[in-house]
Amino acid sequence: SLIELFVIAVGLSMDAFAVSICKGLSLGKIKIRHMLLAGVWFGGFQGLMPAAGYFLGSFFVDMITKYAHWVAFILLTIIGGNMIKESREDSCDCCDADAAMDVKTMFLLAVATSIDAAAVGVSFAFLKVEILPAVLFIGCVTFVCSAIGVKIGSLFGTRYKSKSEFAGGFVLIVIGLKTLLEGLAIL
What value does the mean pLDDT take over residues 55-76? Predict the structure, then answer.
């Protein structure tokens, strides 16, 4: 449903949001182009990676269709658990980064924050989600969250970084559990 897709999109965008907060912090005085750059890089990759995962997963979907709910549950739980674990760590590695927003820096950050989205794309293949609207939606939500994250970082620093990562991880685990319960015909 659209609500579930929105919740997944927000959950996936939390890594990019956290890194955007750090970028905003390191930049200090930001301009609208900083917000747009972060949004385009992170939103673009958050849209591309689920598509790549979807196409990879679609090769295997016929082989394990009856276990699709388990695959989705396991992938979303691992991703969500990782995000929660990262939210508990005291270090803020991304905040030690410089204020660079060049192609190399942003490419590496965009790939790093969107790897979990590829695994969600694999889950989408097993759940037979319509991929084009889903990835466009995820990309747009991440664009907005990242742009806002840069602004928040410039204003408040890292105060919301760990909370956003924890919330994103929790949401992905809940959606994975819901998928499992629906697949087992409990819901």
Answer: 74
Q: In this structure, what DSSP letter does residue 153 have?
A: H
pLDDT tens digits, 1-34: 788 889 889 888 887 888 888 788 777 788 999 9
Report helix angle 103-127 to 131-156, nearest 10: 140
> Do residues 42 and 105 lie in contact, with contact meaning Cβ atoms separated by under 8 Å?
no
Q: Output the pTM of the full model.
A: 0.70
8-state DSSP, 187: -
Contact 182, 47 (CB under 8 A): no
pLDDT score for 65:
62
The answer to whether residues 14 and 164 touch, using CB atoms and an 8 Å cutoff, is yes
Tokens at residue 146, please? 């990242």
At a CB cut-off of 8 Å and minimum separation 6, what does 95 contact? Answer: 22, 25, 26, 158, 161
- DSSP assignment of 87-135 equals HH-S--GGGGS-S--SHHHHHHHHHHHHHHHHHHHHHHHHHT--HHHHH
